[in-house]
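Before going further, it is useful to explain how the protein records used in this thesis are read. An example of such a record is reproduced below.

***
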Amino acid sequence: MKRAALLLLISTQGCLEGDPNPYDQTTTTGGSGPVAIAPGNTCSQRSGAPVTLTLNNRSARQLRLLWVDYSCVEQPVRLLDPGQSFTASTESQNPWRLRDLSTNALVFEYTTNGTPLQSVDINVP
């Protein structure tokens, strides 16, 4: 019985544990902030399938780029200014998140697939 409870606890924690997303979706800034999204529950997987990922910030916001590691912990990668792009060598089944720099709201999440070259445009209102 203890083993079943432990497995249930582990499966319900996932990437949501300790999610630093304090942004209230009803906004406390009079509606001027971005709408936050709920984080996915996928950790990075060691797929062995190489991927070159390019993320293009097409929004007017500064965004913090984070990679979700194998333990479901967000790892800071860099800041993306409006109009800036970033290319990473990664692998399939790796989640990437972008948070608004001023509010820390999670505004975009993307998990790589098996396509070797991937380019993603980020349009945050």
